[in-house]
Design goal:
Largest sheet: 5 strands, antiparallel
Strand order of the largest sheet: 4-3-2-1-5
Radius of gyration: 11 Å
Order of helices and strands: EEEEHE
Strand content: 35-45%
Distance between the termini: 26 Å
Number of helices: 1
Shape: globular
């Protein structure tokens, strides 16, 4: 079971990034995600199973 996560979605995470921000922009999705921290701009790759269990909310630009 996969969540519907697309590029340009903003994920609100349960735990914050070390910079203090808890929102991540999805750059690439698949079995691994490429995310960019909204706070500091750092990019990183994370496996899908690690990300899906830590998502609190998914925000889409098209939904407003």
């Amino acid at each position: 079971m996969f969540l519907d996560i697309r590029p340009d979605d903003i994920l609100t995470m349960k735990k914050p990034h070390p910079c203090g921000a808890n929102e991540m922009l999805v750059i690439r999705s698949g079995m691994d995600f490429r995310l960019r921290c909204v706070g500091c701009g750092r990019e990183f790759m994370v496996p899908r199973n690690k990300i899906e269990k830590n998502i609190k909310r998914i925000k889409r630009e098209s939904e407003g």
